From TrEMBL:
Specifically methylates guanosine-37 in various tRNAs. It comes from the Bacteria. Homodimer. The keyword tRNA processing applies. Its main location: cytoplasm. This is tRNA (guanine-N(1)-)-methyltransferase. GO terms for biological process: methylation. Belongs to the RNA methyltransferase TrmD family. Pfam families: tRNA_m1G_MT (PF01746). It catalyses: guanosine(37) in tRNA + S-adenosyl-L-methionine = N(1)-methylguanosine(37) in tRNA + S-adenosyl-L-homocysteine + H(+). Residues 1-224 form the tRNA methyltransferase TRMD/TRM10-type domain. The keyword Methyltransferase applies. Its EC number is 2.1.1.228.
Length: 225
């Protein structure tokens, strides 16, 4: 899989996507990440990438030319399954969308800034618009990093324990059950007996019950679907 991220701030990706599981996935060649600075494609003599909003109002709008030229260039080099725009007014990203995207060949993620991109980019290039939640970030970069992280860990071969991604919160529509590790007794704080019983059926039953209770209490909306 190849992910091309189109951004005005490529340095923002220096941290989050260069460690841990994502780093391993890149090192193993299971995913390629490419970061493109939109400003490098501006034909304006001052490398401008934004302009005033037609009709007035506060805030600048990202112009078509650099983004269109960059996307055209990438599309001339390979096919893309999805061209995603991350924006607060997109569809809410979730585990189901992560699963779908993890089966893609190549994707582009366009990060918005200011008041967003000219609508014509959305109309003519974008195939999917995603938000990571009902709050406004300073730009799309952190959202693109979140989406990339959630997708990359689902690519077959990325997680060392294959079952681990399958038992995540949300993968089966429920939050995770509680987990414990050694010591079994920490200054009187004890691990539930059932987990030490060695009875797999009982343990599964307990975990399912706890996952259900936790979901009912914290995220009852998940049980409605
Ligand atoms: N850009 C700014 N805020 C965002 C959000 N919540 N999700 C996706 N992109 C964004």
């Amino acid at each position: 899989m190849r992910i091309d991220i189109l951004t005005l701030f490529p340095d923002m990706f220096q941290g989050p996507l260069t460690e841990s599981i994502v780093k391993r996935a890149v090192d193993k060649g299971l995913v390629e990440m490419h970061f493109h600075n939109i400003r490098d494609y501006s034909l304006d003599k001052h490398k401008k990438v934004d302009d005033y909003s037609f009709g007035g109002g506060a805030g600048m709008v990202m112009t078509i030319q650099p983004i269109a030229d960059l996307i055209d260039k990438l599309k001339s080099e390979r096919d893309y399954d999805h061209i995603i725009y991350v924006t607060p007014d997109g569809e809410r990203f979730n585990q189901k969308i992560a699963n779908t995207l993890s089966l893609s060949g190549n994707i582009i993620i366009l990060c918005g800034h200011y008041k967003g991109v000219d609508q014509r980019i959305r109309d003519h290039y974008i195939t999917m618009e995603l938000t990571i939640g009902d709050y406004v970030l300073t730009g799309g970069e952190l959202a693109a990093a979140v989406i990339s992280d959630a997708v990359i860990r689902l690519i077959p071969g990325v997680m060392s324990d294959e079952t681990s991604a399958l038992t995540d919160s949300f993968q089966d529509g429920l939050l995770s059950h509680p987990v414990y590790t050694r010591p079994a007794d920490y200054n009187g704080w004890k691990v539930p007996d059932v987990l030490l019983s060695g009875n797999d059926a009982k343990i599964d039953e307990w975990r399912e019950k706890k996952a259900f209770e936790r979901t009912k209490q914290i995220r009852p909306d998940l049980l409605e679907d």
